[in-house]
Structures are given as C-alpha cells and as structure tokens.
Amino acid sequence: MARVVVDVMLKPEILDPQGKAVHGALDRLGFDGVASVRQGKRFEIELDGTATPERVAEIERAASTLLSNPVIEDFALRVEP
Amino acid sequence: MTIGVVTFPGSLDDGDAARAVRVAGGDAVRLWHGDADLRGVDAVVLPGGFSYGDYLRCGAIARFAPIMEPLIRAAHGGMPVLGICNGFQVLCEAHLLPGALVRNDHRKFVCRDQRLRIENASTAWTSSYQKDQEIVIPLKNGEGGYVADEATLDRLETDGRVVARYLDVNPNGSYRDIAGVTNERGNVVGLMPHPEHAVEELTGPGTDGLGFFASVLESLVAA
Question: Which ranges form a coiled coil (chain A) (predicted)?
Fold first, then answer.
C-alpha cells in the first residue's frame, strides 16, 4: 500500500494569525530564538495498491482543487516509499 | 418571485435569510445541499454559518455539494446569487468570486453592528441602495478577512466591483477594507456582514439590510 503526503501552506504573502498565536505562545513558554511560525496542514493519503503515475496525478488534481485553495495556499506532494 | 435559500449541514442563518426574503415580499424556497436541484427558483442565497464545521477551509467542502453544480451553472447564466458570510466563503471557494476569506488578523471572533458604504449600487443585490449610501448591519465572523493578490484588488477597484466597504474600523483585516465584492456581470455578490439580520426594527440594528432582498426582487421583476 502506498502513501501520498500532501503538505499545504498559506502563501508567504498571506497573513497567518494561527502561526502568530503559536509564536506568541512559544515566546511565553521561554522557547527563545524563534523568528517566526507558519502553520500548515498535512494530508496522509493511503492508496489501494501502488502509486502509479496516473493515480499520483489524480491526487495532485485533488490537492489543487479540494485539499488546497490556490488563491491563498501552495501545496507540495510526495510519494512515501 | 422565488428566492432559494440553501441549507448545508452547519448552516445557521438559513432561517433568517428565508425570513428576510419574505419580509421583503418574496417567496422563500428552502433548498437542500444534497439535492442537485434548484427547484425553479429565480435567485439563490447561500447563508451564513459553519457548513461542514468549517473543516478543511471555510466553504471548501460545501463548494462541492450536489446543489452547487446547478447553482454554479445558473450563476454563470446570470441568475442572481448572494453569499453571506459562510456563503461568501463558498462562492470564493467555487471561484464564482475572486479572492478568499481568511482568519481575522486579530484572531478573535468579532460580532458588532458594522457601518458600511455601498459602493456599487448596480448589482442585482444592491440596486435599491444609492451609490455611496452608508448602512449599518450586523457582522459576525472568525474568518472574514478578505484577501486577494494586488492585481486582483486593483482590477476589482477599477471595475467598480467592490460592492461594500467597511467604515469606522476594519473588523477583520480585510484588504482595502473590502466587505463585499461582485462578479463581472453583477449577478453574484459575496458579503461578509449579515443583511438578513437587519430587516426588522425589533431584532436588529435597523432595517438597512432589507435593501439586498428588495433589490433582487426588483431586478427579477424588471428582467
């Protein structure tokens, strides 16, 4: 069974209030030296069978339509061995 | 004239939207997200709330509900569609409107009576207002920050497609104080504040919201 991992992040120019809140909490807890935090999403997609190029292309289409919104987010996809 | 109001799992303001349609003199038809059928309505309101629990992104799952297929087709054909709050998010996710709505910059849910300026009074949903008329209607959102790239924002401004702009304060970090936008044709409008909560003196800050529903009824009669 193959696994495809899709990481979704807000585009750099889009403000990330959640990341800022996490950054603030890190500071309060004494975790020094953190310059910034951006929070994203990770999808782990298990496939039935092997990750053929066709099926990876399908997941790529899912990533650009449902899993991410191209107006505000970028995604990165990788097939895990 | 019949105005459809879609109920998604997690919609909250569908009842008030239907009521606003009736107060304005129209017939409200309740539509179910799981039916790929607009039941012959003349226009549609996508109401506020938290469709599908705001999972994934606000409006992202609702955008693929069965009702959206005929709705997107009808919107491209010129049928008036108003998305309020979560409905605005659904319209952006469906790419019927440009841009997107993101978490409020101050990270808190905001609920206030909000002053707005109606900057485009020629859409299907704003024609009963005067251009630059100021109105007060409730605003309540956690993810109401309107964002788009600079080129898109410039185009919206140039084409007069900013329907409403926040006055006094920017309540959620929306770029250029944008509270609502329309498509090129002016039949699809997305608005973050809630006109359906301001249609009767008893229950809102006034009746300034009624114009959205009166506008579409007038535009349908005229069509």
Answer: none
